[in-house]
Specification:
alpha+beta
Length: 169
Amino acid sequence: MITLLPFEEADFDRFKSWIRSPEELLQFAGPYFSFPVTDEQLKKYIDDPKRRPYKIVSTETHNVIGHCELNFERSIPRLSRILIADNTERNKGYGKKTIHAMLKLLFVDNTYDQADLNVYDWNTNAIKCYEGVGFQINEGVTSKTSIGNETWIGLNMQITKSNWLAKTQ
């Protein structure tokens, strides 16, 4: 199991240690941060009232194993910056548990009926995780991002509260 706790200044050094290259930063955070991530960038991030960043904590070990964010910049809330950072904790279902925890925060009070997220088309493990929770690719919404000599294609995925509830039963 996991729990989501608020991301705070005390978490900055750990967060920065997880990001070792501009490519890793772009994959995880999109273009929001610039590499290398600084305390100033992170302070601005946690002070942004339209973002709710969390650290992902394993309830078994009590170790912080990742990061995620609920983003309220648009009318549809977005799940953003999702990372299971500890390689030894990947492929254990924590990603799916994190997505469920994030959606529970969004959908429990009936304020929102849908959510979305963005993922790069080559990140097949993440896409499978999101589909397993009930997200579907929004065929009409893609983006292109250049990094080095490559162009990455971003996909948008959406979920409704009713589809999520059907997957949790």
